[in-house]
Specification:
Blueprint lengths: L1 E2 L13 H6 L25 H4 L4 H4 L14 E5 L1 H11 L1 H6 L1 H14 L5 E14 L5 E7 L4 E7 L3 E16 L5 E12 L10 E13 L6 H4 L1 H61 L7 H36 L10 E5 L7 E2 L3 H11 L1 H23 L3 E14 L2 H9 L3 E11 L5 H69 L5 H39 L2 H4 L3 E2 L11 E2 L1
Parallel strand pairs: 1-10, 2-9
Antiparallel strand pairs: 3-6, 4-5, 6-7, 7-8, 8-11, 11-12, 13-14
Helix pairs in contact: 4-8, 6-8, 8-9, 8-11, 8-14, 9-14, 10-13, 11-13, 13-14
Length: 575
């Protein structure tokens, strides 16, 4: 049976059926651990056939409590899908990392706001009341009976003046680098001089000013450089979050399958300890007959070693449970409490077909590290173009136009302004160039080095991805082939034990040597099952690792990212 990538696999082991059938054992029939001759009269020989067989079909079932203090622990049944769902909802690394893209999007909006129109308004009142240092005179002419009379009259030695200024307008930066300002101004000037024609005096003006760079800061690409760089930062942040999600999912899945394997080891060593102890008791009973000290020591050594292995296996289960819970971060399953996690999924042994060439192409297109690094290269290209522009002289065109109007009341000045009879304008240029221009040249050299550096880093990442995919693909295929070899090894060990038990049922003599060989057969079979379970775990971890190396682990688990959060923290993983 063959399945393609992207298909969720939950299958059972079917890899030792042939070995059992070859040994005369059928797991589907009553007395799965029975052998030819089991129906004989029960005696010292017949009893052995039902007591000393390690069944893989039983050892792989780990959906029952296995820890020595299970009665004090709370049982929690978890499938792999449950672990993934809990991780998506509660994992603190994911929840923390989800804010980074939202923060970068806020920075993008801030940078884009540089081109927003700005409403400006001002109001100013100035009152001047001071004495003059020098007294001035003016000539006053009066009519007399004989003609006219002129006299010099001193001016007021005090200056009393009130000046009101109001303005409202818009300022905007254009994509070409130009800045434009449009403003309506109103002025009221009161000098307190009765000889003046208009006092107070009102003045209205409509002003339009444009400053357009022609060299430095000119061009759409230059002025949108900060926006394009910020947009790249958003993309980089999204890819980094994507990478974090992939790594987290790979960690959770690997921890889950590791826990399954460790629980299988507990089952294996429990059965080995039980059966080795029973066999060793029979061996001890023959101490005065034909059991040598070496045989007794061998049995005692196996029991002691198995007991130690069982303690280690149970401790591995507890430690791995904590690792799994830590990667999930579910507040309802806190690390440090008394749990026993019952894993409900069984790892697969079905062949996962993957073409190396297609896997490499997929990885080069989808690996978040490569996508993020390509965006970094693009950002350095933007920075280099900006640095080249900033090394140019500043040469700006300046233009201003004022439409004025004046009168003794505000309405007269406003009407005069709208007649466009009095128009002032100014056209000019400004030039600026630092002697030596060392700062701009240094920035240009820096930008060129950074571009080369990011390109080399991209090529380095590319080579790492190729190596990662190739090694993951090789590991997947070699582990799958190893499963068959380990299955054959376990089958041969099972046949060896089956043959030993069959011999006991047909041979009238059961001596110490028979029991001694049985102990060896039990240990070999248990060790073979342990290695087989470990190989199957490695195969399932290799499937996860290949998906991770291609950057497709989220799609493999039907997970997608929400890339357009409406507010901070809204970027979530949606299943």
């Amino acid at each position: 049976m063959v399945f393609s990538s992207g298909v969720k696999h939950k299958v059972l082991y079917f890899f030792v059926l042939g070995a059992f059938m070859a040994a005369g054992v059928c797991p589907g029939q009553e007395g799965a651990n029975s052998f030819p001759g089991a129906a004989l009269q029960r005696d010292a020989r017949a009893g052995i056939s039902e007591e000393y067989n390690l069944s893989w079909e039983q050892l792989r079932e780990v959906d029952k409590p296995l820890l020595e203090d299970s009665d004090r622990r709370q049982m929690v049944r978890l499938s792999l899908e449950d672990c993934i769902a809990r991780t998506l909802e509660h994992n603190l690394d994911l929840r923390t990392g989800s804010y980074d893209p939202a923060i970068q999007m806020a920075d993008l909006a801030r940078v884009e706001a540089a081109f927003d129109a700005v409403l400006v308004a001002s109001a100013q009142f100035e009152n001047i009341d001071r004495g003059n240092i020098e007294s001035l005179f003016y000539t006053r002419t009066t009519m007399t009976q004989t003609g006219t009379s002129s006299e010099r009259v001193p001016t007021d030695p005090f200056t009393r003046q009130q000046d009101y200024n109001y303005a409202v307008g818009l300022q905007k930066r254009l994509a070409t680098g130009a800045s434009i300002e449009f403003a309506q101004r109103q002025r009221r000037l009161h000098l307190g001089e009765p000889r003046l024609y208009l006092d107070p005096f009102y003045e209205s003006s409509l002003d339009l000013e444009l400053r357009q760079p022609l060299l430095r800061d000119f061009g759409i690409d230059v002025n949108r450089a900060s926006i394009n760089a910020a947009r790249n930062n958003v993309g980089i942040s999204l890819q980094q979050f994507h990478l974090l999600a992939i790594q987290t999912m790979a960690e959770v899945e690997t921890n889950y399958w590791t826990l399954v394997y460790y629980r299988q080891r507990v089952r294996i060593y429990e059965q080995l300890l039980e059966q080795a102890t029973q066999t060793n008791e029979r061996l001890l009973a023959r101490t005065t007959l034909d059991a040598s000290a070496r045989m007794i020591a061998r049995g005692q050594s196996l029991i002691a070693q198995t007991r130690a292995d069982l303690l280690s296996a149970r401790n591995d289960v507890k430690t791995q449970q904590d690792r799994l819970l830590e990667s999930i971060n579910d507040p309802q399953l806190r690390v440090g409490q008394m749990w026993e996690i019952i894993t409900t999924d069984e790892p697969t042994t079905l062949e996962y077909q993957a073409d190396l060439k297609e896997a490499l192409e997929r990885a080069l297109q989808k690996r978040p590290e490569l996508i993020a690094q390509q965006l970094s290269v693009d950002t350095t290209e933007i920075a280099l173009g900006l640095a080249r522009n900033q090394s140019l002289p500043r040469f700006d065109l300046v233009a201003r136009q004022e439409m004025n109007g004046s009168g003794g009341i505000p309405r007269w000045s406003w009407e005069e302004q709208n007649r466009y009879n009095t128009v002032n304008y100014l056209v000019g240029i400004s030039f600026e160039f630092p002697l030596g221009n060392r700062a701009a040249r240094a920035n240009l050299i820096k930008a060129e080095h950074q571009r080369r550096q990011e390109r080399l880093r991209f090529e380095n990442f590319r080579q790492q991805v190729i190596a990662d995919v190739t090694m993951s693909w090789n590991d997947l295929n070699s582990t799958y082939q190893e499963i068959a070899a380990r299955r054959d090894s376990a089958g041969e060990s099972s046949n060896s034990l089956q043959a030993q038990l069959a011999l006991e049922q047909t041979d009238a003599k059961i001596d110490a040597t028979t029991l001694y060989l049985k102990i060896d057969a039990l240990e070999r079979l248990a060790r073979a099952y342990d290695v087989l379970a470990q190989t199957i775990f490695r195969y399932n971890a290799a499937v996860v690792n290949l998906q991770r190396s291609q950057g497709t682990l989220l799609q493999y688990n039907n997970i997608k990212l929400a890339e357009s959060p409406e507010n901070v923290g809204a970027l979530k993983i949606e299943k």
